[in-house]
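pinging the channel bc i need a second pair of eyes. not urgent but kinda urgent?? the chain im working w is below, pasted from the shared doc
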Amino acid sequence: MIAFNVPPYVGTELKYIEQAIKNRKISGDGKFTACCNEWLEEKTGAKKVLLSTSCTHALEMAALLAGIKEGDEIIMPSYTFVSTGDAFVVRGAKLVFVDIRPDTMNINERLIEAAITKRTKAIVVVHYAGVACEMDTIMDIAGRHKLFVIEDAAQGVLCTYKGAALGTIGDFGCYSFHETKNFSMGEGGALVLKSTAYVDDAEIIREKGTDRKKFFRGEVDKYQWVNWGSSYLPSELNAAYLWAQLEQADKISADRLLSYREYEEGLSDLQQSGKIDLPYVPAECQHNAHMFYIKCRDLEERTALLSFLKENGILAVFHYVPLHSSIAGRRFGVFHGEDIHTTAESERIVRLPMYYGLKKQDRDFVIDRIHAFYKKQA
């Protein structure tokens, strides 16, 4: 069976984990956490990056920093993972879903402004597959209406929009280092800060509401509970695992991009003949080959293709079920306008195996079997 995902492993992870143990520092904010934070800051140009226990928790921290409270409204796409909504629902906010663009699967920037009310507090964008949303338009809207912009860049580490790193364009950015991501620490994420104005508050929130970071830096003679917060600090063991991969980020990225290009080239004839659609990447966007997907004609065809691939030893999957159609989505949110593309496009997507170290013969076999399926359909 060709797996859909294999967690990345470069070979030095155990060495660094052992070092963390020998350093007698396995809780958070040790040497490896600092290395990861500094590396991400250097690569993205962010004012501050703080590793977190998950992207979900990075989003929760962003919600706290933005002062989201009960009765506020958050504009966001429905086509995303539940964490994007959860982080704001737990603060009492109402989710206002708007339709997506069918080309990138990102929020349709032209529909945002009509969904704004006096209760709107933030626009939450999701950079699907590491392809950026149309951020110039979104930032202009947010600026005119004095709204926060929070980037769910879970899939967008090392991706850019017009040269700017995803996660650094809005007020707050959130990364994921889950085992399914390009770089992994098992469970983990990071909060990205555009402005130094939020650094102190972010550190307090991340340290359970205490100013312990200031104490460790010698800025106060004792630390105390000063505000709300939670335990958003990841283990040093997780950070050690991640650091091994960040050291070899270029190698991992090149490997994934090779797989992406070979899928794209190998399946381009099916797109040209109108049988499938391939991912669209606007010229101003640089992606990271987080995923490669194809779009079938409809749900029925997708179901048949997934079954065919599984019978041939290939684990391909569909992706999100739109949040507005879920039990919690109907409870905590509302869809503004018409759902023209969100559901229809979500029912067409098939994600192909994509991971660091995916073998050429496996890529070729996936491409061959997809051709075989559509030959049968002719």
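so Residues 126 and 152 are 5 Å apart (CA to CA). and The first strand starts at residue 48 and ends at 52. — does that match what u expected or am i reading it wrong
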